[in-house]
Design a protein that fits this description.
Elements: H1 2-36, H2 45-50, E1 52-55, E2 58-61, H3 63-70, H4 74-83, H5 98-106
Antiparallel strand pairs: 1-2
Length: about 110
Amino acid sequence: MKKMKKLKKLSLENEMKKEVEKEKIEKEKKEEDKKEEIKIVKVTEELIKAKTYEVRGYKVMLDFDLAKIYGYSTKAFNQQVKNNSERFASDFAFKLTKEEVNNLRSKNLTWSTP
């Protein structure tokens, strides 16, 4: 009789652990889904002009702006560019220096970093 009670107790504990783990996984999935939500951006000529800056004599767009336009997170967008680097000219993308970042910020660039 004691063995049966002990087995039932262990079974109940295991079920509770599984339920807690299931809830944890569901919560993590919801949090991940929130991170993945990307707003649809209507691409207009005005938007492109507003998101184009001059850096090193080139007219450029920043990764987070391009990511929004293409419907990616900035991280995913940069990974796509990296994975498909052979499709782009060698000067297609470059990293800004701290000075260039500060210069853009001083020109009232609103940073919406990921």
